[in-house]
Design a protein that fits this description.
heterodimer; A: alpha/beta; Rossmann fold; Alpha-Beta Plaits; six-stranded mixed sheet; four-stranded antiparallel sheet; 14 strands; elongated; B: mainly alpha; 12 helices
């Protein structure tokens, strides 16, 4: 649904994108991750026809983002970093306005506005000016505004930045529903749990190139497997305990002096064996846990 | 071709409708437009005006009002710059640009709506002039209409100056400052409030060739209000000069603004 080859974009002082490839199949979610300045927003802006690439090709919904920009604009929705809605107007008037700009007849624009307000839990608020809305309500209205023509492709630039946890989860649910209905979603985010929660595919950008790509599970596997963390009750037991653990030569010692982390090649089975061995040896343990690598670790590993 | 034109007109109307909806949502804004020129009328008409005598005679307040009308029209640039700058900051311009809207409609629709809004405040200003300063148009109806038409054209031109500035600045407040800062003093560096005759020799040509002077002189001529003479060409042919100035400003800034909108951050 989204196909990008060798995309390059240079601003005066900086190579924002230095040849990226991207493939997002229809009905899936792709999360663009990366530190500030990695080129995430530039990529979204090019795909949403706001920016022209210097080099490379990008097709969205089978249409070239440069040559077929005018037709493509009927098939994409864009929700930016800010809630791009008019503060002074009511939620309903905003949606009606954007609907009219998609060339819906007046009555159709109105009924579509009401439909979207209803769906996004803004039916009541629709009559109030947007400046009275909470952050979460604004983002929902912004999302609604990008969905007026039910575009098959939706671009979202940091959709939940600055939202409280409840509003974020609400927005995630709305996005999941959209994807279930067949929307293809490309989003940038600073939050790894957001990418972990939503994305089928994660693309990590660093300095304008793709540093890594794959499913969240793939990426976690790249950085290494599960580990078991043991906290001994007595620091004196560490040396004896370590001999009972698998791969003690790959152990990381924690700062407390009582804490050890080792690879767990067999996942939960490793944990059970370690528990049994420590118990049999009579070594008292304060905490024992299986840790899967988090996307945070993957991210820090890839971008530092 | 016909289809494109049709959508350009319809999209422009939709965008203009947005401006009107915004206005309805903030009636205080309208009051704000009016308070300032009314203050200027009282300040100049009665405070400074009491110490000003026109070299060629005539009532100072009759002389003053066309100047204030021009000032109201010139300051349209500030509000256009501010609202466009705000839309840039909020990402609304980005949203418009990602929508299948005729490329010039966003700016054209806005400029037309802004103009009609400012004509409303001009009308209120005329009323204030009649009531507060005893101003009258003393020429015939045709000339009076022509005078207002020239003022409107100048306002339209200044809207495009403001729009162009706003498209470069991603903040309403900064766009406001970037326009007001030079525009407001410039309305004084003209024959708006005092005849240019008394200005120092180095300043006089600047004031004489200020487009605003031509507009004010043309309005004074057409309204049959006292005017001041100057040997400078624009003030000897004020109607032609103000027409040329306004058209020149539109011809330069309208394409610049549309081009900036289309190719923004490419």
């Amino acid at each position: 649904m989204i196909c990008v080859r060798g995309l390059r974009k240079r601003y005066a002082a900086q190579q924002a994108l230095d040849g990226i490839d991207l493939d997002v199949p229809a009905g899936t979610v792709c999360g663009l991750l990366g530190p500030n300045g990695a080129g995430k927003t530039t990529a979204i802006r090019i795909l949403a026809t706001l920016l022209r690439p210097d080099e490379g090709r990008a097709e969205v919904a089978g249409l070239d983002v440069v040559r077929d920009a005018a037709r493509l604009r009927f098939r994409i929705g864009l929700a930016g970093q800010h809630a791009a809605v008019d503060e002074l107007l009511t939620g309903r008037r905003n949606l009606e306005l954007f609907g009219r700009l998609y060339h819906l007849p007046r009555a159709a624009a109105r009924s579509r506005a009401d439909e979207l307000l209803e769906r996004f839990g803004l039916a009541e608020a629709g009559r109030r000016p947007v400046r009275e809305y909470s952050g979460g309500m604004r983002r929902r209205l912004d999302l609604a505004a990008s969905l007026i023509v039910s575009p098959p492709v939706l671009f979202m630039d940091e959709p939940t930045t600055g939202l409280d946890p409840r509003s974020r989860m609400q927005l995630w649910d709305l996005l999941r529903d959209l994807v279930k209905e067949g929307t293809t979603l490309l989003l940038t985010t600073q939050y790894l749990d957001e990418a972990d929660q939503l994305a089928d595919q994660i693309v990590v950008l660093r300095e304008g190139v793709v540093a890594a790509a794959g499913s969240p599970a793939d990426l976690k596997r790249q950085i290494g497997g599960d580990r078991v963390r043991v906290v001994f009750r007595e620091a004196a037991d560490v040396a004896a305990g370590l001999r009972l653990l698998p791969r003690p030569d790959e152990a990381d010692l924690g700062a407390t002096g009582r804490e050890v982390s080792v690879p767990a090649p067999d996942g939960a089975q490793s944990l059970i064996r370690i528990a049994g061995a420590l118990d049999a040896a009579g070594i008292p343990v304060e905490d024992l846990a299986l840790r899967r690598p988090s996307l945070d670790e993957v991210y820090l590993h890839l971008t530092s | 071709m016909y289809e494109t034109l049709r959508w350009t007109v319809l999209d422009s109307l939709t965008i203009a409708g947005r401006t009107y909806s915004r206005l309805k949502a903030q009636p205080a804004e309208i009051a704000g437009f009016l308070v300032f020129p009314v203050i200027m009328t009282v300040l100049f008409g009665y405070v400074f005006g009491s110490a000003i005598t026109l070299p060629n005679g005539g009532d100072y307040r009759d002389y003053l009002m066309p100047g204030i009308f021009m000032q109201v029209m010139a300051m349209t640039a500030t509000s256009s710059a501010t609202t466009v700058g705000e839309d840039m900051a909020r990402g609304i311009i980005d949203r418009f640009r990602s929508q299948p809207i005729a490329r010039s409609a966003v700016l054209v629709g806005r400029s037309v709506a802004d103009l009609s809004m400012h004509l409303l405040s001009l009308a209120a200003m005329v009323l204030a002039g009649i009531v507060l300063a005893g101003w009258r148009a003393r020429g015939d109806a045709g000339a009076t209409a022509a005078g207002f038409a020239l003022l409107a054209l100048f306002g339209f031109a200044m809207i495009w100056v403001g729009t162009y500035i706003g498209l470069w600045i991603k903040s309403g407040a900064q766009a406001d400052a970037a326009t007001f800062g030079w525009l407001f003093p410039m309305t004084f560096l003209a024959n708006t409030f005092v005849p240019t005759e008394g200005l120092p020799a180095w300043l006089k040509p600047i004031a004489d060739w200020n487009p605003m002077s031509a507009v004010v002189a043309a309005a004074r001529d057409l309204f049959g209000n006292p005017t001041s003479v100057s040997s400078a060409w624009p003030l000897r042919h004020p109607v032609t000069a103000s027409l040329l100035w306004s058209v020149a400003i539109v011809v330069v800034f309208l394409p610049l603004a549309v081009r900036r909108y289309r190719t923004m951050s490419r």
